[in-house]
Amino acid sequence: MVDPSKLKRLQILLKKEGRTLSPDEIEKISEKLKEESLKNFATGLKHITERHFTEAIKWFQLSDCKETPLIIALLSLKVGDTFLFGEYMNEKSKKDCLEKLEIDIFCKLSDREIILTKDNLHKITDLLR
Predict the structure, then answer these.
(1) What is the number of helices (H) and of strands (E) in the chain?
(2) In terms of pTM, does the model score above 0.85?
(3) Contact 76, 85 (CB under 8 A)
């Protein structure tokens, strides 16, 4: 089981070219997109930057991007939904829309920033116990 006090310290950061993105920057990226699935994905990213994690999950579920299961698993972990975490952690995912948008997701715990991958998410879960 995850320790709730450690879970509160887990931060999710979106970075482009090594710089943390703000909600306004994600909004500007989203406005330029034409494809509906990619727009839904970008809206989910914007909600992450606003710390509206359950709302972000909804938008990622509307997207066809191939890395959404991993992102939803991370967000489920953050909000403490172990059932949803288990469901999405077992799904296949690979880089897709994050590469198109040239954005990376990092998990920050204490002073460590760890890029989001399936293996790293397992390690993060262990660190949160």
Answers:
(1) 8, 4
(2) yes
(3) yes
